[in-house]
Amino acid sequence: MDGRSITWLAFLVFQDVLSKELLKDFQKPKAIPEELGISFGSDSIMVWGGISMEARTELVVVNGGAMTANRYTRDILEPHVVPFAPFIGNDSNLMHDNACPHIAQIVNEYLDTVEIHHMIWPARSPDLNPIEHVWDMVGRRVKVRTPAPADLRDVSAAVIQEWQEIDQAVIRDLFEGMPRRMEAVIQARGGNLR
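^ that's the sequence the OP posted. Answer follows.
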Protein backbone atom coordinates (compact mmCIF):
# COMPACT_ATOMS: atom_id res chain seq x y z
CA MET A 1 0.00 0.00 0.00
CA ASP A 2 1.53 3.34 -0.99
CA GLY A 3 0.90 6.72 0.64
CA ARG A 4 -1.61 7.74 -2.01
CA SER A 5 -4.02 4.90 -1.28
CA ILE A 6 -4.28 5.69 2.42
CA THR A 7 -6.82 8.04 3.95
CA TRP A 8 -5.17 9.80 6.87
CA LEU A 9 -7.49 11.13 9.54
CA ALA A 10 -6.18 12.52 12.77
CA PHE A 11 -7.03 14.20 16.00
CA LEU A 12 -5.29 17.30 17.22
CA VAL A 13 -4.95 18.94 20.60
CA PHE A 14 -3.81 22.48 19.89
CA GLN A 15 -3.14 23.18 23.56
CA ASP A 16 0.66 23.30 23.46
CA VAL A 17 0.82 25.57 20.42
CA LEU A 18 -1.91 27.90 21.57
CA SER A 19 -0.96 28.24 25.19
CA LYS A 20 2.75 28.79 24.56
CA GLU A 21 2.84 30.56 21.22
CA LEU A 22 -0.43 31.83 19.80
CA LEU A 23 -1.94 33.12 23.03
CA LYS A 24 1.15 34.54 24.71
CA ASP A 25 0.58 38.09 23.48
CA PHE A 26 -3.19 38.17 23.93
CA GLN A 27 -4.70 40.37 26.59
CA LYS A 28 -6.88 38.17 28.74
CA PRO A 29 -10.27 39.85 29.18
CA LYS A 30 -11.44 40.61 32.69
CA ALA A 31 -14.57 38.50 32.18
CA ILE A 32 -16.12 36.53 29.38
CA PRO A 33 -19.88 36.14 29.28
CA GLU A 34 -20.98 32.59 30.03
CA GLU A 35 -23.03 32.39 26.83
CA LEU A 36 -19.86 32.40 24.72
CA GLY A 37 -18.95 29.00 26.10
CA ILE A 38 -15.23 29.82 26.14
CA SER A 39 -12.83 28.99 28.91
CA PHE A 40 -10.11 31.51 28.09
CA GLY A 41 -8.42 30.79 31.39
CA SER A 42 -7.40 27.35 30.07
CA ASP A 43 -5.68 28.96 27.08
CA SER A 44 -6.53 26.09 24.78
CA ILE A 45 -8.89 24.73 22.19
CA MET A 46 -9.13 21.22 20.82
CA VAL A 47 -9.87 20.62 17.16
CA TRP A 48 -10.18 17.58 14.91
CA GLY A 49 -9.95 17.26 11.16
CA GLY A 50 -9.34 14.68 8.46
CA ILE A 51 -7.49 14.84 5.16
CA SER A 52 -7.14 12.68 2.08
CA MET A 53 -5.57 13.16 -1.35
CA GLU A 54 -8.68 14.74 -2.82
CA ALA A 55 -10.63 16.24 0.08
CA ARG A 56 -10.78 17.11 3.74
CA THR A 57 -13.42 17.02 6.43
CA GLU A 58 -14.78 20.10 8.07
CA LEU A 59 -12.71 21.17 11.06
CA VAL A 60 -14.43 20.30 14.32
CA VAL A 61 -13.88 22.40 17.42
CA VAL A 62 -14.32 20.05 20.37
CA ASN A 63 -15.83 21.95 23.27
CA GLY A 64 -16.19 21.14 26.93
CA GLY A 65 -14.41 18.36 28.66
CA ALA A 66 -12.03 15.54 28.06
CA MET A 67 -12.08 13.35 24.97
CA THR A 68 -13.13 9.85 25.97
CA ALA A 69 -13.53 6.80 23.74
CA ASN A 70 -17.32 7.17 23.89
CA ARG A 71 -17.14 10.85 23.06
CA TYR A 72 -14.67 10.21 20.24
CA THR A 73 -17.09 7.69 18.76
CA ARG A 74 -20.17 9.88 19.26
CA ASP A 75 -18.74 13.32 18.38
CA ILE A 76 -16.06 12.50 15.82
CA LEU A 77 -16.38 9.05 14.26
CA GLU A 78 -20.16 8.88 13.80
CA PRO A 79 -20.82 12.39 12.44
CA HIS A 80 -17.54 13.00 10.57
CA VAL A 81 -15.53 9.88 9.76
CA VAL A 82 -18.35 7.52 8.82
CA PRO A 83 -19.93 9.93 6.27
CA PHE A 84 -16.50 10.88 4.85
CA ALA A 85 -15.13 7.34 4.39
CA PRO A 86 -17.37 6.31 1.44
CA PHE A 87 -16.22 9.41 -0.44
CA ILE A 88 -12.64 8.09 -0.25
CA GLY A 89 -13.51 4.54 -1.30
CA ASN A 90 -13.51 0.97 -0.05
CA ASP A 91 -9.72 0.73 0.17
CA SER A 92 -9.37 3.68 2.54
CA ASN A 93 -7.71 3.36 5.93
CA LEU A 94 -8.33 5.53 8.96
CA MET A 95 -5.20 6.78 10.65
CA HIS A 96 -5.48 8.28 14.09
CA ASP A 97 -2.72 8.55 16.63
CA ASN A 98 -2.32 6.36 19.69
CA ALA A 99 -4.22 8.62 22.06
CA CYS A 100 -6.18 6.52 24.55
CA PRO A 101 -9.62 7.39 23.12
CA HIS A 102 -8.46 6.31 19.65
CA ILE A 103 -7.12 2.90 20.60
CA ALA A 104 -9.79 1.90 23.10
CA GLN A 105 -11.48 -1.44 22.46
CA ILE A 106 -14.89 0.21 22.11
CA VAL A 107 -13.54 2.41 19.31
CA ASN A 108 -11.94 -0.55 17.52
CA GLU A 109 -15.20 -2.49 17.79
CA TYR A 110 -17.19 0.46 16.48
CA LEU A 111 -14.84 0.90 13.50
CA ASP A 112 -15.13 -2.81 12.75
CA THR A 113 -18.93 -2.60 12.96
CA VAL A 114 -19.11 0.29 10.46
CA GLU A 115 -16.44 -1.41 8.31
CA ILE A 116 -13.85 1.34 8.49
CA HIS A 117 -10.36 -0.07 8.24
CA HIS A 118 -7.88 1.52 10.59
CA MET A 119 -4.12 1.43 10.83
CA ILE A 120 -2.02 0.31 13.74
CA TRP A 121 0.19 3.32 14.17
CA PRO A 122 3.63 3.34 15.80
CA ALA A 123 4.16 5.57 18.81
CA ARG A 124 5.96 8.88 18.36
CA SER A 125 5.75 8.96 14.56
CA PRO A 126 4.64 12.49 13.61
CA ASP A 127 7.10 12.62 10.70
CA LEU A 128 4.97 9.99 8.98
CA ASN A 129 1.64 11.68 9.56
CA PRO A 130 0.84 14.19 6.82
CA ILE A 131 -1.81 15.93 8.91
CA GLU A 132 0.88 17.06 11.38
CA HIS A 133 2.25 19.25 8.59
CA VAL A 134 -1.23 20.67 8.00
CA TRP A 135 -1.57 21.46 11.71
CA ASP A 136 1.79 23.23 11.54
CA MET A 137 0.61 25.34 8.57
CA VAL A 138 -2.64 26.24 10.32
CA GLY A 139 -0.82 27.18 13.53
CA ARG A 140 1.72 29.35 11.70
CA ARG A 141 -1.01 31.13 9.75
CA VAL A 142 -3.05 31.87 12.87
CA LYS A 143 0.05 33.09 14.69
CA VAL A 144 0.81 35.79 12.09
CA ARG A 145 -2.75 37.11 11.72
CA THR A 146 -3.26 40.84 11.99
CA PRO A 147 -5.03 41.70 14.13
CA ALA A 148 -4.24 38.76 16.35
CA PRO A 149 -7.21 36.83 17.73
CA ALA A 150 -8.32 38.43 21.00
CA ASP A 151 -9.83 35.41 22.73
CA LEU A 152 -10.49 31.71 22.24
CA ARG A 153 -13.58 32.34 20.13
CA ASP A 154 -11.43 34.39 17.75
CA VAL A 155 -8.74 31.68 17.80
CA SER A 156 -11.33 29.03 16.96
CA ALA A 157 -12.70 31.09 14.08
CA ALA A 158 -9.18 31.78 12.80
CA VAL A 159 -8.19 28.10 12.96
CA ILE A 160 -11.33 27.10 11.05
CA GLN A 161 -10.74 29.77 8.39
CA GLU A 162 -7.08 28.84 7.93
CA TRP A 163 -8.00 25.13 7.69
CA GLN A 164 -10.50 25.95 4.93
CA GLU A 165 -8.03 28.15 3.04
CA ILE A 166 -5.22 25.58 2.72
CA ASP A 167 -5.08 24.63 -0.94
CA GLN A 168 -5.94 20.96 -1.50
CA ALA A 169 -2.90 20.75 -3.81
CA VAL A 170 -0.68 21.36 -0.77
CA ILE A 171 -2.33 18.45 1.04
CA ARG A 172 -1.97 16.27 -2.06
CA ASP A 173 1.75 17.11 -2.15
CA LEU A 174 2.05 15.90 1.45
CA PHE A 175 0.61 12.53 0.46
CA GLU A 176 2.83 12.30 -2.58
CA GLY A 177 5.82 12.99 -0.32
CA MET A 178 4.98 10.04 1.95
CA PRO A 179 7.33 7.53 0.25
CA ARG A 180 10.22 10.00 0.64
CA ARG A 181 9.36 10.63 4.32
CA MET A 182 9.07 6.90 5.01
CA GLU A 183 12.49 6.33 3.47
CA ALA A 184 13.96 9.18 5.55
CA VAL A 185 12.54 7.68 8.75
CA ILE A 186 14.01 4.31 7.82
CA GLN A 187 17.38 5.98 7.20
CA ALA A 188 17.08 7.72 10.59
CA ARG A 189 16.33 4.30 12.14
CA GLY A 190 13.00 5.56 13.39
CA GLY A 191 14.42 8.76 14.85
CA ASN A 192 13.08 12.26 14.41
CA LEU A 193 13.80 13.88 11.04
CA ARG A 194 14.33 17.39 12.42
